[in-house]
Design a protein that fits this description.
The complex is a heterodimer of chains A (180) and B (409).
Chain A: H1 3-12, E1 21-25, E2 31-35, H2 36-39, H3 43-51, E3 60-62, H4 68-87, H5 94-106, H6 110-123, H7 126-140, H8 145-152, H9 160-169, H10 171-174
Parallel strand pairs in A: 1-3
Antiparallel strand pairs in A: 1-2
Chain B: H1 7-15, H2 29-32, H3 47-54, H4 62-65, H5 70-77, H6 79-88, E1 93-98, E2 104-109, E3 117-121, H7 136-141, E4 144-148, E5 151-155, E6 160-164, E7 169-173, E8 184-188, E9 191-195, E10 205-210, E11 215-221, E12 226-227, E13 230-234, E14 237-241, E15 244-245, H8 253-260, E16 262-267, E17 272-278, E18 284-291, E19 294-301, E20 304-311, E21 322-325, E22 341-347, E23 350-357, H9 361-366, E24 379-383, E25 388-392, E26 403-408
Antiparallel strand pairs in B: 1-2, 1-26, 2-3, 4-5, 5-6, 6-7, 8-9, 9-10, 10-11, 12-15, 13-14, 14-16, 16-17, 18-19, 19-20, 20-21, 22-23, 23-24, 24-25
Classes of the chains: A mainly alpha (180), B alpha+beta (409).
Protein name (chain B): F-box domain-containing protein
Domain F-box (chain B): 39-88
InterPro entries (chain B): F-box-like_dom_sf (IPR036047), F-box_dom (IPR001810), Kelch-typ_b-propeller (IPR015915), Kelch_1 (IPR006652)
Chain lengths: 180, 409
């Protein structure tokens, strides 16, 4: 249990004037001061604090697999969801959540999306991972083979002969379906 | 690169590397390798994360994805993909009917109330170089079907195909060890078992097919060689049901009846035959399947049909008990012979009876149609929970002399 830090600070000032922050350090050395409820959405952080009773508020938790850029994206998502939760603890405002999520991923390139999937997996935020892999799936949906290869930088490792056979037999799969 | 490159394992390994966060963390090169990959896109994700993405793609897009590269193709065929798919979109049972006279197949989904048939051309323009497919229709007309998850194995006398209901791709597979015709087949623990049927010389074995390795092997010898038998499986037992005794016509009627109304039970795991069982009222098994721990049997007696249930739950206490169930709503005098044929398919908690051949005029008049020559199309559904029969949409006309199987997708 996270008795030592979590409860000692919150019990002394139960309705705290100043929100408790948790420091997270990314791979490139930047330290993020994150509000506790937001940081606790990162399962890796939550279990770290739950497992280690001797950590203090000054503890800076290193996250060597998360870049600063990915961290910005992750925190934007988690903060937005924390905000939704705070405003409507019973049920999230679905319309708003959807609008936020749509705008949120529109701005992300495939490369950024990949970085965030890796980060969300590493930080073990299952909700975000579900969402991001769903976004990747959406980007793959209705695309031709050629399009997928080009768009996602996949190396075609079929031999020219195999490729020719596939193209002959499954012509439909290689023609652009949805150029988006 | 490695076969089982799993990011989550790596994460937990990493997590255990934080013994003392008060010390400066020295990130080593190996730890960096996850973020600094050579290719910089979604395809550079480790297998498990790429699978998470691919398993969320709608079925309609899956066909082309297996042509993207070898790795994607391998992942789409992996058991993990099926597992994730099952988890994300609960898989539904559907009935697959393959026409042996036209190059069509149809699928009947049971998940919604107003189910209807979806037709797909069953396109043989595939790389089938083998002579076995030279006469594709002849191959189909004698084939038996078994499904493992969303993949249907079409076993013909000397050739086999695997049909993927997600990608609609047909791939030739290793044919059976013997050129069987009218044999029994069933799936036990993701492997296919076949027995009986006519072949030269007669196949006296039970053969097992492993789809992972695409290989067949003999696992046992049958107590009776049944021709025209039906296969089913419940709790690890392969049931070889009905059929006729092959060989000399002198054996007489008594023994022929014995074959037609009985079934042999092979325990796959124990590799042993259990005591054979026979229908209490005799008769001739015309269709059979397994559903909800039971084997359901449609039997024909000279002038009537009867519908039976065999309790196949081995730890249920009632193992081996036969019960006569409410029969299908067919006219009393229907004679099932060479002109009328049924196929019986277990689909989760339902037993689906498909009339795959013949013409039932009486039934036609009852249902208020006036035209004669109502052909091979009736689909009746028995609900094991309520014990009632309902009628499902008829088999589409283009599907003739169908072979049917239940699959998950």
């Amino acid at each position: 249990m996270s008795s030592s830090i979590a409860s000692s600070s919150s019990s002394s000032s139960s309705s705290s004037k100043k929100e408790k922050k948790i420091s997270l350090k990314t791979s490139d050395g930047e330290v993020f001061e994150v509000e506790e409820p937001v940081a606790m959405q990162l399962e890796i952080v939550r279990s770290f604090f739950a497992d280690n009773e001797d950590v203090t508020e000054q503890t800076v938790m290193p996250l060597p697999n998360v870049s600063t850029a990915a961290m910005h994206g992750i925190l934007e998502y988690c903060r937005a969801h924390e905000e939704f939760r705070r405003r409507m603890p019973e049920a999230a405002p679905e319309e708003e959540v959807r609008a936020f999520e749509a705008g949120y991923v529109d701005r992300k390139s495939n490369e950024e999306l990949k970085e965030m999937i890796l980060a969300a997996n590493y930080l073990n935020i299952s909700k975000l991972l579900d969402f991001l892999t769903g976004v990747a799936a959406k980007r793959i949906e209705n695309k031709s083979v050629e399009y997928v290869r080009a768009f996602f930088g996949v190396e075609n490792d079929f031999t020219p002969e195999e490729e020719a056979n596939l193209r002959r037999e499954y012509e439909w799969a290689f023609e652009g379906v949805d150029e988006d | 690169m490695s076969e089982s490159c799993n990011s989550r394992h790596f994460s937990w390994l990493m997590k255990s590397c934080f013994p003392n966060p008060n010390h400066d963390y020295h990130s080593s090169n190996t730890h960096q390798s996850i973020t600094t990959t050579t290719t910089t896109d979604i395809s550079s994700l480790p297998d498990d994360l790429l699978l998470e993405c691919l398993s969320r793609v709608p079925s309609s897009t899956l066909p082309s994805l297996s042509f993207v590269c070898r790795r994607w193709s391998r992942l789409l065929l992996s058991p993990s993909f099926l597992h994730l798919r099952r988890h994300l979109h609960p898989l539904h049972h559907s009935l697959f009917a393959l026409s042996s006279t036209t190059v069509h197949s149809g699928t009947l989904h049971f998940d919604d109330a107003c189910c209807s048939w979806i037709l797909h051309p069953f396109n043989p323009s595939l790389p089938l170089h083998s002579h076995a497919f030279a006469n594709f229709q002849s191959f189909l007309s004698q084939a038996r079907l078994s499904a493992i998850g969303p993949r249907i194995f079409i076993m013909g006398r000397n050739a086999m195909l695997r049909y993927d209901t997600w990608t609609r791709i047909l791939v030739p597979r290793t044919p059976m060890l013997f050129c069987r015709k009218k044999f029994a087949s069933a799936v036990v623990a993701s492997k296919i078992y076949v027995a009986g049927g006519a072949s030269r010389p007669p196949a006296v074995t039970v053969d097992e097919y492993d789809p992972e390795t695409d290989t067949w092997r003999v696992v046992s010898h049958v107590p009776r060689i049944r021709y025209g038998c039906i296969g089913a499986s419940v709790e690890g037992v392969f049931y070889v049901i009905g059929g006729l005794k092959i060989g000399d016509g002198t054996a007489g009627g008594r023994e022929a009846h014995l074959y037609a109304s009985s079934m042999d039970l092979y325990d796959v795991e124990a590799r042993a035959w259990l005591r054979s069982r026979a229908l209490p009222g005799g008769g001739c098994v015309v269709a059979a399947c397994a559903a909800m721990g039971h084997v359901y049997v449609l039997a024909n007696h000279a002038v009537e049909l009867s519908f039976w249930r065999f309790d196949a739950r081995r730890n249920g206490g009632g193992f081996g008990e036969w019960s006569r169930m409410k029969g299908p709503p067919l006219p009393g005098q229907v004679r099932v012979d060479s002109r009328v044929k049924f196929s019986c398919v277990g689909a989760e908690d339902k037993v689906v009876l498909v009339q795959v051949m013949g013409c039932i005029d009486d039934l036609l008049r009852r249902s208020g149609r006036s035209s004669r020559g109502f052909k091979q199309s009736l689909v009746l559904v028995y609900h094991t929970a309520s014990g009632d029969w309902t009628r499902a949409p008829d088999l589409p006309e283009v599907i003739q002399r169908a072979t049917c199987v239940d699959f998950e997708s």
